[in-house]
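Fold this sequence, please.
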Amino acid sequence: MRAVLIIGTVGVGKTSAAEAAGDLLAARGVPHAVVDLDGLSRFWPAPADDPFNFELVITNLRALAATYRTAGARVLLLAGVAETADHRRRFTEATGGELVVARLQAGPATVRERLTRRHADDPEGLAWHLKRAGELDRILREAAVEDFVVDATAPADRVAARVLAESGC
């Protein structure tokens, strides 16, 4: 099973691209699963030394990947964040050893517009996400854990097609 991890800053379109890639694979008859890694981290309280529950994500992903492999998935599409080379290594191990990482990028204006739409009724959430967007974008660019970068300003189906093509799926 090939795993494709779609990373990028908050608001860049990781989940939308993963879901669109899943639709494209379904249209081709390719057995696959789509996982938004944020859902695997939803536990409160997070440990003080692991504020984004990375260890929980890895534990849950290991179990899910095994289940999807047994069910016949040929591709595992993941939307999330890998901030370091060690994170990439841990995702590779958790998914079974074959991982391709695509980093989505979009300019600050595009990310701001998407986040503003998403958090229209949550000013505090918007402020946090806007601050995190710039910080995380810098972290990801410096870490350079990706195999390739995709411009995420295009519609999600075009971004997804590029991710699948570049990852060999």
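The longest helix spans residues 123-143. The chain has one domain: 2-78+88-164.
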